[in-house]
Structure prediction request, 338 residues.
Amino acid sequence: MSINRTTLPTLLYLTLTLGVGLGCSPVALKVSQVAPSSQPQVLNLGSAALALTYSPDGQLMATGNGAGQVMLLPQVSGMAPRSLPNQSAVNALAFSPDSQLLASAGGDGRIRIWEVTTGRLRFTLQPDTYYVTSLAFSPDGKQLASGSGDNTALSGLGNSVKLWDMGSGNLQASLLGHTDVVTAVGYSPDGIQLASASRDNTARLWNVAARREIRTLRGHTDDLTAVAFAPNGQQLLTGSADTTLKLWTASSGELARTLSTATPIVAAAFSPDGTALASAGEDRVVRLWNAQTGRSVRVFLGHTAPIQALAFAPNSAALASGGGLDKTVRVWPWGGGE
Prediction:
């Protein structure tokens, strides 16, 4: 196991210029020094780093923080950083497959759909739940799935997966079955299935077209916090507060492998090339695993608070992590294929 020890990381400080009207606000980006290729870039968000994602075309990283700021950070030259006025703590972000739309959601229970190029707010979706935890676009971009938590202990109706039409902004369906907060959602690469994870200790697979549950995956002993299909669609990854990652055969629901860590897992992801898994959580450590063998291959250190979010760059060359209360996003260089 190789350990990337970054005791003195280079910092990229972000300072938002707020109150510049609706749509995209300019962001003042102060660069103290460009990080060497062997060290992570560290982005200071000024508030809890809760959500992050890359655009599929690789041109942008979107981050969301506890102050309600959504930031669009260019990954290529010739583009300026921008911010979007989300207005509440940002728990979830998702780009459409064509990178033209960005969905954001959080503590106010609303989902906002932004046009990336103009910064115009296209839709505001109101799931009628206490808060939204997770978002995912379907592979064809025509549908958005959201996971949510109920604001009462009585109805349970808010602990659902909701499907939204991206042409009209209308609610298409509510997928009911989970008995506690839905913490994560993700589509299969072919768009036929949708996976959801919940604090009820289960993951569920749904047939999207039929709007029905296919199966329930049981085996975790605590809250599920992450779910993701492998890029080839053959496996499903789940992460849990029980300190384990589990890999399931997507077609049968059979458990294929369990990977163990020392502390609860908060975030997990497949690399886009399918060669690696990443996990992170309360121990403030990012771990890379070989997706085929289950072997731990690298550890990234540097966060000073439990990690809340993970995202691979589309080309699998970098891995970004959001450090929650340490207010930073760290972008770790990684060559892939380990």
Q: What stands out?
A: Residues 15 and 90 are 17 Å apart (CA to CA). The radius of gyration is 19 Å. DSSP finds no helices and 31 strands in the chain.
